[in-house]
Amino acid sequence: MAIADGYNGYVLISVQGLLGLISDETIAIGVELTDSTFVLRVWVAELNAVVDEMADEITSEVEALMDPADLPLEVDVVVGEPKIDWQTWGGRLVYRRKR
């Protein structure tokens, strides 16, 4: 069944798919919806083989929870701290590393 309840459904499958996959390099993860794409934005401290493998595993796990009628998934890996105004950002933060 396709995700019908917008952000809540996409956040839910994101969190389910992320369980056990977040590496030490991960700073934050956010969910964003556009008209045509479901974006999981992953902010990391550095790019390396662990991050590459994590991104592949996240893609695989989240897509396994999706229906073909859902928006297509894009996993976007960004190096550095999120530079987002959290009060006006339209996405949802689903993970933030403890400082």
How would you describe this structure to a colleague?
- The chain is of the alpha+beta class and 99 residues long.
- The protein has a single domain, classed as GMP Synthetase, Chain A, domain 3.
- Helices cover 28% and strands 27% of the residues.
- The protein contains 2 helices and 4 strands, in the order H-E-E-H-E-E.
- A 4-stranded mixed sheet has the order 3-2-1-4, with helices on one face.
- Strand 1 (26-33) and strand 2 (38-44) form a beta hairpin.
- Helix 1 (7-18) packs across helix 2.
- The chain is globular.
* Strand order in the largest sheet: 3-2-1-4
Roughly what percent helix?
25-40%
Sheet with the most strands, sense and barrel status: 4 strands, mixed
Could you tell me the radius of gyration in angstroms? 13 Å
> What's the number of structural domains?
1
Low-confidence stretches: none
Approximate shape: globular
Structural class: alpha+beta
User: What's the CATH topology name?
Assistant: GMP Synthetase, Chain A, domain 3
**Can you identify the CATH class?**
Alpha Beta
The overall pLDDT, averaged over residues, is 91
What is the H/E string? HEEHEE
Share in β-strands: 25-35%
Jot down its keywords.
99 residues, alpha+beta, four-stranded mixed β-sheet, 4 strands
Task: Give the SSE map.
Blueprint: H1 7-18, E1 26-33, E2 38-44, H2 49-64, E3 73-79, E4 92-96
Parallel strand pairs: 2-3
Antiparallel strand pairs: 1-2, 1-4
Helix pairs in contact: 1-2
